[in-house]
Structures are given as structure tokens and as C-alpha cells.
Write a structure and sequence with these properties.
Its EC number is 5.1.3.1. The chain is an alpha/beta fold. The chain has one domain: Aldolase class I (TIM Barrel, Alpha-Beta Barrel), CATH 3.20.20.70. Helices cover about 30% and strands about 20% of the residues. The chain is built from 8 helices and 8 strands; from the N terminus they run E-H-E-H-E-H-E-H-E-E-H-E-H-E-H-H. An 8-stranded parallel β-sheet has the order 1-8-7-6-5-4-3-2. Helix 6 links the parallel strand 7 and strand 8. Helix 2 runs parallel beside helix 3. The radius of gyration is 16 Å and the shape is globular. The two termini are about 15 Å apart. Bound molecules: 5-O-phosphono-D-xylulose and fe (ii) ion. The site of 5-O-phosphono-D-xylulose has 23 residues, from strand 2, strand 3, strand 8 and helix 7.
């Protein structure tokens, strides 16, 4: 399976985000994961569409926007206009369905995410309409937390459903991914790994990205 690595800019130096994005591009990242938090869906606040718009000018990396906001339907257009290539909304949000419809209408890749406490069954009705499912392996809100291995069965179930129905579904894992936990996620069936701390704080991000992609500890 082709494994893609998406460094999460939540762990970047926000004083020089443009340089940080370029640093990840040069290190061989496949995507740039952009965590958007509203202080309501999660207890943290990060960035909005204007920052995405500015970043779009400095890197060619596809933007993988992870919306941790309570009303994603209100902001989908702004993030697509700003340059998002794929957008993830949370299954726990009442307007997730509407946001997915808007994303499909705009022609960008769309994904649903489940928090650790949300059963993976929540995404089942949407499977054939999704490009990706994001399995959170930490409680969303902050970087630098430990990978929850009890989320691995969700990844296995998703891969089994994708195989069973012949769906070209990407399975992304986010939270606590490092060189030790990446092989577990890949073995379970994940093919896109988000990594914040592990890549941004690495002395050699290029080597770390290569190692994460290899699936070997
Ligand atoms: O969405 C989130 C956190 O809510 C993530 O994307 C984190 O930013 C990942 O950071 P690490 O756990 O890899 O440090
Ligand atoms: Fe994220």
C-alpha cells in the first residue's frame, strides 16, 4: 500500500508558518495537515481560512484541512476558497452531513472523522460518498499526546469495509503517530499518517518521514 505522510502544522512554529510549510515540503511530506479548532468543539483555538490562504502561496503541498469546529457547514466554502484540497469534518457535528454535501459540490476531497469515543459505525452510512475516514487516536485539541492503541480495531474495520465494498477509501490516523506507533496503524490498514510532534520536533524530518512511511519501527 502507498503510505502518505501528513505533517500537522499544529506542532510548527506559528511565528514562521510559511517557512515551516516549506521545510515539510523539502523533507518529503505528501500533504500538509492543517488543524482548525474553534475553542468550542475542542478546548483550543488555532487558525482560520485567511492563514490557509496565505500558506497556499508558499507551498505546492496539498492541504489536508482537519476541521475541529462545531459548525463546519458555515466554513467549508471559506476553506475551499482559501486553497484546501481535502477537508475533514467530524461525525459528531450535527451539520456534518450538510458540510459533506457542500464539499462534494465544490469538488474537493471530503472526509469524516471519529473521536475516540465515537463508534466507527457512525461513518458507515456515508462510506460510498467519502474519500477518506480519519480515525482520531487521541482526544482532539492538542498535539503531543499518546497514541491510543485501542483505536486500532476501528482502522481494521474500516479497511475490511473498504475491501468488502471495493471502495477506494483512504484511512487516515491522527494523534500520537511516531516511528513506534506508525507500524501499528499501517498494519491495521491506515494509509495516511498525520504526525505533528514526531516530524516537526525531529532533528532530521526527512529521515523521520521516510521511517514513518516504511512502516518499520
Ligand atoms: O488533530 C490533531 C489534534 O487534535 C492532530 O493533528 C495533532 O496535531 C497531532 O499531533 P501529534 O499527536 O502528532 O503531536
Ligand atoms: Fe489533526
Amino acid at each position: 500500500m502507498n503510505i502518505q505522510i501528513a505533517p500537522s502544522i499544529l506542532s510548527a512554529d506559528f511565528a514562521c508558518l510559511g517557512q515551516e510549510a516549506r521545510r515539510m515540503e523539502l523533507a518529503g511530506a505528501d500533504l500538509l495537515h492543517i488543524d482548525v479548532m474553534d475553542g468550542h468543539f475542542v478546548p483550543n483555538i488555532t487558525i482560520g481560512a485567511p492563514v490557509v490562504y496565505c500558506l497556499r502561496k508558499v507551498t505546492k503541498l496539498p492541504f489536508d484541512v482537519h476541521l475541529m469546529i462545531s459548525e463546519p457547514d458555515r466554513y467549508v466554502d471559506a476553506f475551499v476558497d482559501a486553497g484546501a484540497n481535502m477537508v475533514t469534518v467530524h461525525a459528531e457535528c450535527p451539520s456534518a452531513d450538510e458540510a459533506l454535501k457542500q464539499l462534494r459540490h465544490r469538488g474537493v476531497k471530503c472526509a469524516l472523522s471519529v473521536k475516540p469515543g465515537t463508534p466507527v459505525d457512525a461513518v458507515y452510512p456515508y462510506l460510498d460518498k467519502l474519500d477518506m475516514v480519519l480515525v482520531m487516536t487521541v482526544e482532539p485539541g492538542f498535539g503531543g499526546q499518546s497514541f491510543m492503541t485501542d483505536m486500532l480495531p476501528k482502522i481494521r474495520t474500516l479497511r475490511q469495509w473498504a475491501d468488502q465494498f471495493g471502495l477506494p477509501l483512504d484511512i487516515q490516523v491522527d494523534g500520537g503517530v511516531d516511528v513506534n506507533t506508525a507500524p501499528l496503524a499501517i498494519a491495521a490498514g491506515a494509509n495516511i499518517l498525520v504526525a505533528g510532534t514526531a516530524v516537526f520536533y525531529s532533528d532530521d524530518p526527512k529521515a523521520t518521514i521516510r521511517k514513518l512511511r516504511s512502516g518499520r519501527a
